[in-house]
Design brief:
alpha/beta; 331 residues; 39% helix; binds ligand G4F; Rossmann fold; 7-stranded parallel β-sheet; 13 strands; 2 domains; binds NADP nicotinamide-adenine-dinucleotide phosphate; 10 helices; 15% strand; UDP-galactose 4-epimerase, domain 1; two-stranded parallel ribbon
């Protein structure tokens, strides 16, 4: 059927998540018909897409349920499929390793099977992760860097990555993986370290809290802005031939530097408030991630527009505004 309005139709799993909300905005701005997959829940987790619900369509399906995915493809007949749904929190993957494997790993095979059977001419984007590099085998990390995952989440994403490559090579599907480094925003879930820090900075600044408990302050991440990264996803699906791309800023910062920047921005000394707590340390750590995004720059014309300091300030400002108005978190 495609798009009744003449443009393309995109099917987006994980539309209620951080990336899903930014991608939906981008696709709507480009004139797409956007259909989001939501799983059944007793509540409606639509905070991030509340401003979009009258412009997108929502459809019920679950990455655990093959039939629901086949039905979704048959009903929507998408031109492009963005598979963003996953159990995406690394720490939880040690507590729920089987469920993480089902959602984040096997769920991708279910999506690819549904696509192969119903819409084999569609284009498929898989949300791969820099966590696949884990104990890094070279620095910076690029498309050819060997994977060495360090968590059940990372292992599930490696499986998902390779099944995507295999469906491309075995069945000739247009299927790509974007190996995205950490990307953040004011819509980031509160459990992730950037948002945990910026939310605490806002509450401490406003006198609503005094302490922030964190795990490993020495871990290094390549943090970018989610709004830039969904643009890279879209660009990957517009290429003549499908391929995989590393997306990141090429800069790396420690969690300690994140604290310095976020607390310092509002005139606070992070050392007076941050307490290290072994409860937030991980059984195995990914110590250092930093991207070499040169292939994406060359082939996609993609570059990050927001750098670390600007990103942290954007997030602190948003959390300050939210706490000043006593608005519940969107995450
Ligand atoms: P997120 O905010 O945690 O969103 C995850 C989404 O997946 C939510 O919409 C969630 O729905 C949905 N979902 C989870 N299990 C599902 C299931 N069984 N069936 C259907 N939907 C399900 O994640 P994000 O930060 O936007 O990341 C998007 C994707 O990129 C994820 O695959 C993540 O692993 C990957 N990734 C993220 C980063 C990053 O730094 N953000 C980097 C690399 C890769 P509910 O609202 O119902 O929970
Ligand atoms: O913010 P994080 O939880 O993100 P992590 O584990 O890097 O994973 C995120 O990025 C991946 C891309 O590389 C995505 F695939 C994945 O879905 C997710 O979006 O932790 C970042 C670092 C870690 O080294 C962690 O040990 O921060 C360290 N950290 C220190 N204290 C903490 C804390 N992380 C969290 N979440 N909470 C802490 O208290």
């Amino acid at each position: 059927m495609g798009d009744v309005r003449g443009g393309k139709t995109a099917l987006v799993t994980g539309i209620t998540g951080q990336d899903g909300s930014y991608l939906a905005e981008l696709l709507l701005a480009k004139g797409y018909r956007v259909v989001g997959v939501v799983r059944r829940s007793s509540t409606t987790p639509y905070e991030r897409i509340a401003h979009l619900v009258d412009r997108i369509e929502l459809l019920s399906a679950d990455l655990l349920d093959q039939t629901s995915l086949v039905d979704a493809m048959a009903e929507v007949h998408p031109d492009e499929i963005y598979n963003l749904a996953a159990q995406s929190f690394v720490a939880t993957s040690w507590n729920q390793p089987v469920l993480t494997g089902e959602f984040t790993g096997l769920g991708v095979t279910r999506m690819l099977e549904a696509m192969r059977r119903v819409v084999p001419k569609a284009r498929f984007y898989q949300a791969s992760s820099s966590e696949q590099f884990g104990m890094v085998q070279e620095t910076p990390q690029r498309e050819s860097t060997p994977f060495y995952p360090r968590s059940p989440y990372g292992v599930a994403k490696v499986y998902a990555h390779w099944i995507t490559v295999n469906y491309r090579e075995s069945f000739g599907l247009y299927a790509v993986s974007g190996i995205l480094f950490n990307h953040e925003s004011p819509r980031r879930g509160l459990e992730f370290v950037t948002r945990k820090v910026t939310d605490a900075v806002a509450r401490i600044k406003l006198g609503q809290a005094n302490e922030l408990r964190l795990g490993n302050l020495d871990a290094r991440r390549d943090w970018g802005f989610a709004g830039d990264y969904v643009d890279a996803m879209w660009r990957m699906l517009q290429q003549e031939t499908p391929g995989d791309y590393v997306i990141g800023t090429g800069e790396t910062w420690t969690v300690r530097q994140l604290c310095e920047e976020a607390f310092g921005y509002v005139g606070l000394d992070w050392r007076a408030h941050v307490v290290t707590d072994p409860r937030f340390a991980r059984p195995a750590e990914v110590e250092l991630l930093v991207a070499d995004p040169s292939k994406a720059k060359r082939a996609l014309g993609w570059e990050p527009t927001v750098r670390f300091r600007q990103l942290v300030r954007m997030m602190v400002d948003a959390d300050l505004a939210r706490h000043r108005m006593h608005v519940p978190s969107p995450a």
